[in-house]
Amino acid sequence: xxxxxxxxxxxxxxxxxxxxxxxxxxxxxxxxxxxxxxxxxxxxxxxxxxxxxxxxxxxxxxxxxxxxxxxxxxxxxxxxxxxxxxxxxxxxxxxxxxxxxxxxxxxxxxxxxxxxxxxxxxxxxxxxxxxxxxxxxxxxxxxxxxxxxxxxxxxxxxxxxxxxxxxxxxxxxxxxxxxxxxxxxxxxxxxxxxxxxxxxxxxxxxxxxxxxxxxxxxxxxxxxxxxxxxxxxxxxxxxxxxxxxxxxxxxxxxxxxxxxxxxxxxxxxxxxxxxxxxxxxxxxxxxxxxxxxxxxxxxxxxxxxxxxxxxxxxxxxxxxxxxxxxxxxxxxxxxxxxxxxxxxxxxxxxxxxxxxxxxxxxxxxxxxxxxxxxxxxxxxxxxxxxxxxxxxxxxxxxxxxxxxxxxxxxxxxxxxxxxxxxxxxxxxxxxxxxxxxxxxxxxxxxxxxxxxxx
Length: 454
Known about the structure:
- The structure is a single chain.
- Helix content is 80%, strand content 1%.
- The chain is mainly alpha-helical.
- α2 packs across α7 (93-118), α5 crosses α17 (341-373) and α6 (81-90) packs across α16 (327-339).
């Protein structure tokens, strides 16, 4: 069974799917006129500047909370383990292709979030529900595709969003601090239950506080390494760029391997095109779909261009990627090469934070997918309870079959979502044009108000 599932996983994450994901981002990039580049400064301002919510805005959580909830799910072990694997198998050039994937992925993430807000609905409790299943049903008139996405998402949440994460935490703590896995499992289960049983508002508050701290700890650690070793950066960057087009360093010297692993790990990390993050975006308080879409777009920039780059460049600088190490041990060894034991502990603590945040974010995704399939409060409560209990099981034992099945479900989520993005690209272009006109008027009004006050 493992061999069969492994073959299926390799197929669904093979070149056709990766080409579809990157191709969709490329198409949207040109259709939106490279919006992710020209509107990035404004998008970052929307995401991090305190702004009074318009009274007409509908939603459950703020722009910032929606962003951090999505980032909680995406900034995970992929930023530490996935990047290391990409460099080992694909070579240093894989980091470059992660950047390219992120560049086009920003346009994909923007489109996902815009459609999620535009086609969202209000459930029986007065809370917002949205995501691919809703824009496939209400926008594309293809409910069967929405149902497929929801099935894949609800199942994937238990693997990639739950057991894999809790197992990563327990394994890291046992290796570094000799903490028994069952102890970690109990603590994780209790913490997860306290957060997710409170619903999206509770999740939003926790991630708004939690995510900036965990990301800052890791990024600052990486920046300290770079500042202390400025002389190594030019050679590392040069190797990343040259290997991106030659594939000569590792991975058998095959250029296709470099591109494939760079793209695959980039997608794994920022989830652009998978359809998960727009579920959180749909809960945001916003007056226009385009406003929240720009905020969501910054998630890819932070996740891949910032956090993954810290990992990738540090690993290349340490030059230990061809010595037999892989995954978390490689990243840990690379940080330790520059910071001593402190570097290893930094990576371990980051894995704990990243994995737990992913667990919390994915709990919401799975819940919303399940809620789309079964509009029953009792069934939803049971789903939440089971999700919390599975955290403990994942911490003490992770079955390879679970990982592979979740991996397959994760890839299958992307297919109906990408169909929706391509089919509704005209709606995305129209809504974007409308909002950018409004944003321009708002900017002129702000300038006028400042001039009058002066």
